[in-house]
Amino acid sequence: MELLYLYVHNDKKSIKGCEYNFSPNYRFTYNVATKTFHMEWHRDNLPHKWFGENILNMTAIIGKNASGKTNLIECIIKSLCGRGGGWIIYLHEGQLYTNVPILYPDIKFSFDIKRFSRWGSPLNGEFKEKISDTGVIFYSTSVDRPLSNRNSHYSKFKDISNAFLLRKHISEIGNTPEFAHISDIDVMLTNDIFRFLLFRIYIHNRFIDVENFNLPAYFEMTFHAYNHQNIKHPTYEKLSSGLKYSFADQLKLKILQRIFAKNSIPDTWDDNTSFEEVLSSLNSQYDYNIFDSLLELFDRDGINYKQPLQHVSIGNNSPLTFGVRIDLIDYKFLNALYNYCYEPIMSLPYASSISFDDYVSNAWITINYGVSSGERVLFTLLSRTFVSIFGKQGEIHHVRDHRIVNAHDFDGKTIILLLDEPDIQLHPEWQQKFVNMLLSSFAKFFPNVMFQIIITSHSPILISDIPKSNILFIEKRDGYSYVCSPMKHKETFAANIHNLYNDSFFLDGIPIGDFAKGKIQNIYNQLNDAEFSPEILKEIYRIGEPIIRELLLKKYDSKCQNFAPDVRKQYLIEELKKIEDAEKGNI
């Protein structure tokens, strides 16, 4: 499924009577007076799979703050999830579909299209017209999005935005002792590290090249301390006495505090009860636990722990913080860590990583990546997308085999990925890499899943990786959002942004996106071949930077000089046509 068009009658916010075309290969319009949809033209403006083998299409939405970009994303989600939003047109297996039901015969279409029998989502299983091979994922780093509420959930829609993951149900508040409370931010970061570690193990086991990712050597783990003053149990007093400052002793103390602060203590425990027996209360069904797993890593030099000097006073309530080597972790360790954090129904190991959101406690451990905010954005987006896709596949974690088996039910299907300003925390150097890294990552990690990407952005650097034909220019006038004609704007792809950012952000080289650079290099390589198609002119004229464009045109003209007269005539005719089209604004 590919979303092609959306018409919003009135979102009661900032969009009224506005239409959006998401594909350069189609253009639809709605005539309000005649209540008729028209298809003005259908053409191949971009070569097939131009963005990559598993990218159906990529559209950027740009505009100033408060121009209505996020409202547009909300309308897209509501339309796809059957909750209003607007009228959509989409393509599925070569056939055009719409969510405008046949119950509204006064709304007409001047072209062939399939309509639903009633209102609802095109992804809804109840419809005979359903699209069963598509899911929708929304991601945003912001925490103030109206999209993020539990009521927006739909079976084919996954909200992986910060705002959604930080909002808890009222019943989840106060489930931990007052002294154990930490912020929701820490909870979200802890959940994210589980996703990231699972993602890291996944790509490591498949020997996927991660050269573009500056993965940290360690992640930081903190075992939080608890108020032990009121713990008057003989087992605790016996096992916690005489502990020193070594890693093993401090880890043992924190685990004891966790058990005696929260769990129901068996009546049979006394001052003869061993630590192994106490520890088994957390892992009654498994042959491993977090204590043994961490000590095993410690023996392999996988723990970075700085033991304090003996004369330094450390209270029993002090947290225990240390680093864990990422390249040494495996499923066994991840399960042990999860089961320690998990408020267990112990008969259920985690069957899907989506359960992180509901069950990881905010009381026992917090974990940090050890990376910059910019690096975290990409890791978080990829790892949350990873668990969303494989969560839909019915991921099964074989706890005793320490492996994950995926049904790959989503292979060959489509994800409509909605990204709301994902680059907002990125330095210009990372903005320059973002599109290329995103597309290459999807090709590596999800080669059998098709993606349609719709992204909002303020970054001219990011936009330089996307042709003008794939950009919606949004402005606001008289309080309402509207789409500007692309004729008013210059070509964006490979356009020079050096004058905007060179002095402020210290960019080296040609200040265009890496994806655009790759396309330019490909054009140059083609011009060096013995033969090339006249269609290459269209690619040259797509380049917005005039100096680069002119250099390539000179190279093109030089090569044409060596062709036979009839062949050269054909190329000159093609060039004249491209010049005329450029003057008319058609390319």
Briefly summarize what is shown.
This protein is of the alpha/beta class. 34% of the residues lie in helices and 19% in strands.
Can you describe what's shown?
With 587 residues, the protein is α/β, with parallel strands linked by helices. Helices cover 34% and strands 19% of the residues. Helix 10 runs parallel beside helix 11 and helix 14 runs parallel beside helix 16. The longest helix is centred in the N-terminal third of the chain and has 22 residues.
Topology:
Layout: E1 2-10, E2 16-21, E3 26-31, E4 36-42, E5 55-62, H1 69-80, E6 87-92, E7 95-98, E8 108-109, E9 114-115, E10 134-140, E11 157-159, H2 162-166, H3 184-205, E12 218-223, H4 234-240, H5 247-262, H6 275-279, H7 290-299, E13 303-304, E14 320-325, H8 331-341, H9 356-359, E15 365-368, H10 373-392, E16 396-398, E17 403-405, E18 414-420, H11 428-445, E19 450-457, H12 460-463, E20 471-477, E21 480-483, H13 498-505, H14 514-528, H15 536-541, H16 546-560, H17 565-584
Parallel strand pairs: 4-8, 5-19, 5-20, 7-9, 10-11, 10-18, 18-19
Antiparallel strand pairs: 1-2, 1-6, 3-4, 6-7, 12-14, 12-15, 13-14, 16-17, 20-21
